[in-house]
Specification:
It is a single chain. This protein is an alpha+beta fold. It contains 12 helices and 14 strands. It has helices at 12-27, 105-116, 122-125, 144-159, 166-183, 191-198, 240-258, 271-279, 284-309, 317-329, 336-347, 373-386; strands at residues 5-6, 33-42, 54-55, 57-70, 75-80, 83-91, 127-134, 203-208, 213-218, 226-236, 352-356, 361-369, 393-397, 404-405. Strand 8 (203-208) and strand 9 (213-218) form a beta hairpin. Helix 2 crosses helix 5 and helix 8 runs antiparallel to helix 9 (284-309). Bound molecules: adenosine-5'-diphosphate (ADP) and magnesium ion. Adenosine-5'-diphosphate binds next to strand 7 and helix 4.
């Protein structure tokens, strides 16, 4: 049987050089520069972003690159090495809700959103030529969409002389979210763009979705002899969208019944009392489990961040395990492929493992000793084969740098 298939992380310098060459072939001139932005994975804090909770994403070493050259005539021309369909051309004046359709929305939507948000400069109104090369797998829950937007945003931000400190990056992140929500038409929160733009090498960000604040948290996996194994289960169950809406409705109803703005306001010390109140409702049994997940999950994020701050990286495994168990039992968003991944990784040396992202497919993560990544991946691949499931794919990751210039 073939070994597990790993998605390699790109060599940044070499990938940027090669892309500059391809840009020259495509457009007949050198690009102004090459920029890249990472995909992301959430270490912990799942399904709490729509109830004021905390999450702890990190940037993957898997990045999307964009070679770009500004124009002055208001036209955006863009190609992607991942999209064989050729060049997309759109005048900036025609960019807006749902336009352009398809993948180019994630590119052309960015200058549109920056202008909407009050940024100024010829690089935003003049258009550009761009060539994209993505090394974040599509649709695995690792946010290839944000990687693409954020690579474009950091390029344009630099061309309009925006300071690329954390405040500048926060402004770019909200524009990228606006582009994704309005131009691409995907109703998502802001975690992906915040992680892709604001993470630093060797760290995660603690994102507070109640006030949108971000705190840097060191995550020295390499120093602890660890790595993160990301497993793309390649499962995508069709009921995911409906279930997501139902969970949101559950937590909103529970917050109403408890008389709070969101479940972040429920103190873990008062959880039992809150659950007793909800249990008395006609459909209380389900609400009790949903609220128990949200409140304990937010608390687990806090405890994870505390352990990381104390340098006790190797102690976070049980919190990852508890997160998965809560998502499976109380929140009911896991599935066979995610459970099999987590159980198998735990049985093969993982310190902790959990589903990550919305659930019902997508990816799982396992915290593994650096020397045992291959072994854990092989065990997961064998378990999938044994059940007749489609072969999963793997990424090995250490926390990488946010969006930046490469060339
Ligand atoms: P995810 O963000 O989880 O990977 P999404 O559905 O949100 O999944 O975004 C994937 C979409 O983003 C792709 O279908 C494509 O339209 C666009 N995209 C991502 N990377 C690239 C790329 N390298 N080139 C062109 N389009 C891309
Ligand atoms: Mg996405």
């Amino acid at each position: 049987t073939p070994g597990p298939e790993f998605f390699p992380a790109p060599d940044r310098a070499r990938t940027a050089q090669a892309l500059a060459g391809e840009f020259r072939t495509a457009y007949g001139t050198d690009p102004e520069g090459v920029w890249s932005a990472p995909g992301r994975v959430n270490l912990i804090g799942e399904h709490v972003d729509y109830t004021g909770g905390l999450c702890l994403p990190l940037a993957l070493p898997h990045r999307t690159f964009v070679a770009l050259r500004p124009r002055t005539d208001g036209l955006v021309r863009v190609r992607s090495l991942q999209e064989g369909s050729g060049e997309v051309q759109v005048p900036l004046a025609e960019v807006g809700a749902g336009s352009p359709a398809g993948w180019a929305a994630y590119v052309a939507g960015v200058p549109w959103a920056l202008l909407q948000n009050g940024f100024e400069g010829l690089a935003l109104t003049g258009g550009f030529d761009a060539l994209v090369d993505g090394h974040v797998p599509y649709g695995s829950g690792l946010s290839s969409s944000a990687a693409l937007e954020c690579a474009v945003a950091v390029a344009l931000g630099e061309l309009v002389d925006l300071p690329l400190d954390d405040t500048g990056r926060a402004g770019l992140a909200s524009a990228c979210q606006l582009a994704e929500n309005v131009v691409a038409g995907a109703n998502t929160g802001g975690m992906d763009q915040a992680a892709s733009l604001r993470c630093r090498q060797g760290g995660a960000i603690l994102l507070d979705t109640d006030d949108d604040s971000v705190t840097q948290v060191a995550l020295d996996l390499a120093g602890a002899g660890l790595a993160l194994l990301v497993v793309d289960t390649r499962a995508a169950h069709s009921h995911a969208g409906g279930e997501y809406g139902a969970r949101r409705a559950d937590v909103e109803r529970a917050a109403d019944l408890l008389g709070v703005a969101n479940l972040r306001a429920v103190d873990p010390a008062g959880l039992d009392a809150a659950l007793a109140r909800l249990g008395a409702e006609p459909d209380g049994e389900v609400l009790v489990r949903r609220v128990r997940h949200a409140v304990t999950e937010i608390d687990r994020v806090r405890r994870t961040a505390e352990l990381l701050r104390a340098g006790r990286t190797d102690e976070v495994g049980p919190l990852l395990d508890a997160s998965h168990d809560s998502l499976r039992e109380d929140y009911e968003v896991s599935c066979t492929e995610l459970d099999l991944t987590v159980d198998t990784a735990r049985a093969h040396g993982a310190l902790g493992a959990r589903m990550t992202g919305g659930g019902f497919g997508g990816s799982a993560i396992a915290l593994v000793a650096a020397g045992r990544v291959e072994e854990a991946a092989a065990a997961v691949a064998a378990a999938f084969a044994g059940r007749g499931l489609r072969a999963p794919r793997f990424l090995s990751a250490l926390p990488a740098e946010g969006a930046a210039r490469d060339l």
